[in-house]
Amino acid sequence: MAVCEVARGGLVEELAWLSKETVMFVSDNTLGFFLVSSMIHGIDDYNKINPYMTGWWAHKLGFPACISPTPHETILPSWILDSSRRRYISEEIAKLGKGNISAQIFTFRELCVATKNFNPENQLGEGGFGRVYKGHIETPEKIVAVKQLDRNGYQGNREFLVEVMMLSLLHHQNLVNLVGYCADGDQRILVYEYMQNGSLEDHLLELVRNKKQPLDWDTRMKVAAGAARGLEYLHETADPPVIYRDFKASNILLDEEFNPKLSDFGLAKVGPTGAETHVSTRVMGTYGYCAPEYALTGQLTVKSDVYSFGVVFLEMITGRRVIDTTKSTEEHNLVTWASPLFKDRRKFTLMADPLLEGKYPIKGLYQALAVAAMCLQEGAEMRPMMSDVVTALEYLGMTKVEEDNNNKEGEEEEEDERSKV
Question: Is 184 a known active-site residue?
Fold first, then answer.
């Protein structure tokens, strides 16, 4: 946030640029906001703006000095734009959510206070959608995660509305809780429950940057089972069913006990109902995680999510990214690399994450890779339902490292005998 000072009549007043279009000002101990209707031409660094000019709207607002707009630009008071935006958001939520939206509505000012003006020191993460900050709200008093969506990012008004509605209407222990949202002016902000351990990606694929220790085998299986239960709820309990469409490690959040919750529902889609077999839609999602039939035809089913789950589960087993251009050409794509290895059980151990240091149950590894292979089958009809995946993972979770390793030596001898036949 850039701050510049304005001098008038011996008083010093502050302009705090919260974004490219939103300004907070402090004058005579009064806090206020106004919006610049369009980005000032040719200026990206607001620290360089000369604030010593006046404008009619500034006088009407009781604010004596502001940025001089170009001839075709005006400075509008925030309530003119805010009331229209809030009314649109509220009407759409009421219409599509049928009045059952329970999320709290926050003002931008409240969230500025909660995050200390979106202080970079409070930033938890950043992606194509925007930035996430740690915040503290007073009503109700709690620590929250505040996701400020990027106006130029992929998540627009529709995705914002979808996420508010989905997370307000769907409730499960493995879905993140939406505390509230803000639609003031051009702001699109979502307020979630705070998840102490960040995302699965932080602990699996970004260990060095985030200074994390690798997850042990049992924790990986716990996270996989919980994430699978979240998808099972969306596919088989929600009515109508919901296709998540963006299942990946960065969207799986972890609480202090590493219980997983799915987040980021902006791309979620209501699934086929009745005699329908699929939903036809524009291809969205993250490269590498999309099911092949969806990527080719735009035909979306719950089995598309099953494929994405298989990709993430394989990442959890191997410790590899689905797309990694730092590796040799034949290993760029995780699924392509793993496909021939799936066919030879003797090579299963080659797929185990080296950071596990061999501390995994051999039976568990075989079973986990079998589940991943089933989810990654080319034909959607051949993939299991998520309820079947949950059953398999719950059984898998009962096989602990210590218990299984007692039988490891005998099983390896048995495997050697089979290979000789």
Answer: no
Contact 260, 174 (CB under 8 A): yes
**Bridge partners of residue 144, in order along the sequence:** 135, 193
Q: Which residue has the tokens 């409730």?
A: 171
Tokens of 356: 């596990």
Q: Which of 184, 246, 264, 305 is catalytic?
A: 246
| Among candidate residues 136, 162, 193, the one where a domain is terminated | 193
Which residue range forms the structural domain that includes residue 123? 79-193
| Residue 236 DSSP code | I
Q: What is the pLDDT of residues 307-350, one digit of tens each?
A: 999 999 999 999 999 999 999 998 999 999 999 999 999 999 99
Pairing of strands 178-182, 104-105: parallel
264 lies in the same domain as 316: yes
Answer yes or no: is pLDDT of 147 > 80. Answer: yes
The mean predicted confidence, pLDDT, of the chain is: 77
Nearest to 395 by CA among 419, 363, 360: 363
Asked whether the beta carbons of 338 and 310 are under 8 A apart, the reply is no
Pair 168, 312 in one domain: no
Answer for the pair 33, 21: CB distance below 8 angstroms, yes or no: no
Among 147, 168, 193, the domain boundary falls at 193
How far apart (Å, rounded) are the C-alpha atoms in residues 292 and 343? 20
Question: Is the distance from CB of 383 to CB of 375 less than 8 angstroms?
Answer: yes
Sheet with 11-17, strands from edge to edge, namely: 2-8, 11-17, 22-27, 30-36, 75-77
Q: 370: which 2 tokens?
A: 């079998």
Same domain? For 102 and 63 the reply is no
The binding site for ATP comprises 147
pLDDT digits (tens, 9 = 90+) for 100-118: 567 889 999 999 999 999 9
- Residue set of the binding site: 147
